[in-house]
Amino acid sequence: MDAELLAEYQTQFTCGFEKAKDVFPACIAEAHQTLSPEGVQAYLDGANFLCKIGMGVEPVLVYLEVMPEIAAHIGKGTMKMVADYAYQIARSPNKKALIPFLESLGSVCRRIDTIEDLQHYFDIIEGFVEQTQTVIHGHHSIHESPGMVPFMESVPQLISKLTLAGIRNFVEYGARNYKDSPDQQIEYFSLSSHDAKSIIQREREGTVFKDVERHLDMLKDCMWNCDLPFSVFSTAFDQLRKPVPYLDEDLIAVPDVYDIENGVAGIDRYRAMLAHMMAHREWSTKLMADNFAPHMQLFISVFEDSRVEYLAMQRYPGLRKLFLALHPYPEKGACDDSKQSCLRYRATRLSRALLDQNFDSENPLIEDFREQFHAVMAEKGESSTTQDMAKLGTGFYVKSRKQSSDSLPDIFFDDTEISYRDDNRYIWFHYEENDESEDFHNNEYQSDERVVDDADSLPPRHYDEWDYISETFRPDWATVYERLHPSGDAGKIDRLMEKHDGLAKRLKKMIEMLKPQNKKRIRFQEEGEELDLDVALRSVIDFKSGQAPDPRINYSHTTDSRNIAVMLLVDTSQSLNERNQETGQTLLELSEEALAITAWTVEQLGDKFAIAGFCSDTRHEVRYQHIKGYSESYGDEVKARIAAMEASYSTRMGAAMRHAAHYLEAQKAEKKLMLVLTDGEPADIDTKDPQMLIQDTHKAVEELQGKGIYSYCITLDPKADEYVSDIFGNQYTVIDHVDKLPEQLPQVFMKLTH
Asked: Whole-angstrom Cα distance, residue 87 to residue 94?
């Protein structure tokens, strides 16, 4: 741009801020180069306007910097739109958000293509403000939205992971749930809360790990005979280091979501990733990292990755197409080693050559080592070792090393990421304790969890909760902490049974009637109760004719068995401390008696059963207390836990039922029954709308039914008719005379399982 034109533009730029005048020549030169004359004029008009809105020089500086690129991409109409909306923010209680708003525009406009999309983005901001700004009644004043500045600062991260529709859903969720909680609103829109991360994961496009976890579990167990658990890390947030899948002795770490890559669907990317790591587990052994330079480790890892994939493809030929589709195809000459380090580029080309017989590397050294690799694999097959690959990797590095460029700080990364491969920590170990290898295991991508310092506690589990207003799940909304219930005096339960001796005798007669009576004959037994004449005669004939006789000449009997698994889930909320007017006992004491007698009844019937208590102190702490597991017998240890039951806090029933179903679902039984004993409706101190937890518990009942679990409620609440049918349908019993609970609970159970 010539000096005369610059002088003309400077004349038209009427802003009086010296800093703005200093940067103007460079900014107008970029605008002149990328925009039409009309666009440049709109650019100048917008800048002059922002100088006069009373917010200082900074908005003008940001506008001058970002708008030429935005207008060149979307159109000159964006100039006035942005300037007008910036003025609107400057005149509002949210004027502190003006600079973050302007700074976010570059990131937003790189992900959208039209003015309509930009208007949609402004509408999302407007919706956020309307839902979150605070109106002081009686004073007619409006206060700022607490989360506005954090939201604007988070937009670049959000737009990199979500569509505008996803951001709208993210905003509506946060605004609806944190309208009256400023601190939580700020935490959510700063993307630091667990809820924010969960919503982002839900709204992301692609295949979410949760949706395919069961399928991958089956692949892992059936095809690779592996029972290691999965651990999920988030890829939704920019980090100093991009998270990579990994395998160690204790778990398989996988990303929370996979998008389509090279036409390969997310589910298939998960399959490729799992196959690669399982191949390492099957065929890799350890190498001491201290014995090899870091660059040498890179090429050894390439050969070892290729070896285990070669073996995996021999076992499961369908993997070849999958691996090749996901493996990058670096072109010859793409990296200039006079300017950049080409280590990764060289390693990726080598990897492609080892994997793909049709890849022409046009490199004699790569071809030489490809032949050596395939010679080893042809000769040894599954007998090949990680040590064999260490020799090949070391040899290749020594012969391909370029001392002048390999250590350059500028590393060539284009088309070198093999996304389905792990970080290879499984094949390396370090001699020194507390060495750098420990850094591998620091998972900086997991959200902070509440830590319960208790040796009898399990790690927390998160469960979705149903929001009946929006008809969507709040992902990972309730956190369940499970711990082993403390023990008390087991003799207390024995004394209760003596107190109810008459009831026990009546129940015993009912139990005898319910116990299986029909006998079935089991034939073809080598050892049994009686001789099976038909089989015995056939065996004699075979023997005399010179054939080997069948030794299974006996039969035995067995009874038709009840195949039932039961979960007794007991509400232990504060209200159970209330006393019964007639007996003087607390509801908790009556529940203990009923539970003891029911547990004795179920034990006599021989059914598999577990017992747990639950209460809650907000959604952040649902307490689930393990009283009896399916593998435990009903003995003094379990009795001692029942004897020590205490009542406290609230009743977040849906989360407790989902957690209990986690165990009940795993039982192999024809009939699965969850029997819930409670004295009131679902409620918690952090939920103002009474319908919220009622509807969530109803949703939990539907979820359990979909898993083949029959839910039934025994309630001691005389007002239960007002809500219990909304939750359980007709699957409930109201016990009006609570002193009858110890007698009625086991009888209800027997009717349900008859």
From this structure: 11
